[in-house]
């Protein structure tokens, strides 16, 4: 199974996901950063 790293290996997806979750947390006033990874 091909992973995202096979297409864009230079991107740190966990850092991107973290920043996205922080952004959603700010916008919606809910702390999405505490949700399990599988929920996203």
Verbal overview:
The chain is mostly helical and 40 residues long. The chain has one domain (4-39). Helices cover 50% and strands 0% of the residues. It contains 2 helices and no strands. The longest helix has 16 residues, at 13-28.
Number of domains: 1
Number of strands: 0
Strand content: under 5%
The tally of helices reads 2
SSE arrangement, N to C: HH
Overall mean pLDDT stands at 71
Going by helix content, strand content and strand pairing, the class is mainly alpha
- How big is the Rg? 12 Å
The major sheet is characterized as: none
Poorly predicted runs are none
Portion in helices: 40-55%
Q: Rough shape?
A: elongated
Q: Which terms would index this structure?
A:
mainly alpha, elongated, 50% helix
Outline of the structure:
The protein is mainly alpha-helical and 40 residues long. Helices cover 50% and strands 0% of the residues.
Blueprint of the fold:
Blueprint: H1 4-7, H2 13-28
């Amino acid at each position: 199974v091909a992973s995202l790293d096979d297409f864009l290996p230079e991107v740190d997806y966990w850092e991107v996901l973290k920043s996205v979750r922080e952004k959603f947390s700010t916008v919606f006033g809910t702390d999405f950063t505490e949700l399990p990874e599988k929920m996203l």
